[in-house]
Design a protein that fits this description.
The chain has 253 residues and is α/β, with parallel strands linked by helices. The protein has ten helices and nine strands. It has a single domain, classed as Vaccinia Virus protein VP39 (Rossmann fold), CATH 3.40.50. The N terminus is likely disordered.
């Protein structure tokens, strides 16, 4: 097993552009949070999910494998959140989409977001205290426990960024972004290795633990037990899980 936060995007991130696509409904919430910002920095930008196309955007991504999956007209600078190569107040807004849990020095990275923005920081993340809302906890409690250790408490973000509004985002049934909760009503997806490869969560568990949990899920799907317990989720239009939008707005000194 790997240490929390030690996912190797160079080796394991090659399927992200295909499986972790921007969901337009979630994107609308992110872009609304950016308000009137015209210049935006996306930190830990990955393959480019949730980046607005109607603004001047600069992307930062440390992993070459992720930068290679970006659209040709939206290249990313090779740099880390903890050491952004920009002067103070270079951008109207800074954004970080499902990435802060991977930063080795979270507080330093958040302070850098604050430093290079002119007052607005938008972070998409997951609330570790709400991760067990997903039924997967019944099959792989070890996975949920691992994720709780990886994702920082929301108060930790707020303590650094200041003036935060935290909003729970409902996840649509046909969510196009393949994070764990996106498949709340499509349980068979977790049996697909390609789906799991685009979710860093699985890499932190012993393969024997993963196989044991998936074997139980496979059996319950075959017997109908999963549907007897959770079948209503297959048609439930939205799921209130752990996805959170953190918006910090303050006037830069």
């Amino acid at each position: 097993m790997r240490a929390a936060g030690d996912f190797d995007y160079e080796r394991d991130g090659t399927d992200y552009a295909e499986r972790r696509r921007t969901d337009p409904r979630l994107a609308a919430r992110v872009h609304a949070a950016l308000g009137g910002a015209r210049t935006v920095l996306n930190v830990g930008a990955g393959a480019g999910s949730y980046e607005p196309t109607d603004r001047q955007l600069t992307a930062v991504e440390p992993a070459a494998a992720m930068r290679a999956q970006r659209p040709a007209d939206r290249p990313a600078i090779a740099a880390t959140a903890e050491q952004l190569p920009f002067p103070d107040g270079s951008f109207d807004a800074a954004m970080a989409m499902v990435t802060v849990h991977q930063w080795p020095e979270l507080e330093r990275g958040l302070r850098e977001l604050r430093r290079v923005s002119r007052g607005l920081v938008v972070v998409l993340t997951f609330d570790p205290d709400a991760l067990d809302r997903l039924w997967l906890v019944d099959y792989l409690p070890e996975l949920i426990a691992s994720e709780r250790r990886r994702f920082p408490p929301l108060q930790r973000l707020a303590d650094v960024l200041g003036h935060c509004t935290i909003t729970e985002l409902s996840i649509p049934l046909d969510c196009m972004d393949g994070f764990l909760e996106a498949y709340y009503g499509r349980p068979e997806a977790f049996l697909d290795p390609a789906v799991r490869r685009a979710q860093s969560s699985w890499s932190f568990l012993d393969p024997a633990i993963v196989e044991r949990g998936l074997s139980r899920l496979r059996a319950d799907l075959a017997s109908g037990r999963w549907d007897r317990r959770y079948g209503q989720l297959r048609s439930q239009p939205e799921f209130a899980g752990a996805l959170r939008l953190v918006v910090s707005s303050m006037v830069a000194p």
